[in-house]
UniProtKB/TrEMBL annotation:
<dbReference type="InterPro" id="IPR036286">
    <property type="entry name" value="LexA/Signal_pep-like_sf"/>
</dbReference>
<dbReference type="InterPro" id="IPR039418">
    <property type="entry name" value="LexA-like"/>
</dbReference>
<dbReference type="Pfam" id="PF00717">
    <property type="entry name" value="Peptidase_S24"/>
</dbReference>
<dbReference type="InterPro" id="IPR015927">
    <property type="entry name" value="Peptidase_S24_S26A/B/C"/>
</dbReference>
<feature type="domain" description="Peptidase S24/S26A/S26B/S26C">
    <location>
        <begin position="10"/>
        <end position="128"/>
    </location>
</feature>
<keyword id="KW-0805">Transcription regulation</keyword>
<protein>
    <submittedName>
        <fullName>S24 family peptidase</fullName>
    </submittedName>
</protein>
<keyword id="KW-0804">Transcription</keyword>
<keyword id="KW-0238">DNA-binding</keyword>
Amino acid sequence: MSEVKMYDIEAAAGDGRSLEQEEVESTLYFPTEQLAAQGLDPAQVVGIKVRGDSMDGTLADGDWVLVDRSRREPKPEGVFLLLVHGERRIKRVQRVAGGAWLLISDNEHYQPEMIKPEEMRDVEILGRCEIRIGRVS
């Protein structure tokens, strides 16, 4: 069995602190072979509680998502845990012409945010969101 630490990013202090410095809300245990079958290294996986409705349609408020911290490049494109101006967010990341990124909310009520190459110093990918744990509606 592999231990996966679960964090509530809304309760996190933010401002560039690593997750390891945050309080662990709970710990879940997964069969190591099941994580490996999903291409995940248990030592690189953390759980994050989703807050807000910006990713509705993919992730709901209160869902948990397993984040692979070894995948920190938007290749291929996907849903990532990011640090944007000191704030942790979960967004779909799409690379666009000129080296910019679009941060996309799956909820159509939110507009995409363009991160230009000169603004990249204020953005860090903390990991790729791989597995959702949530209520069936």
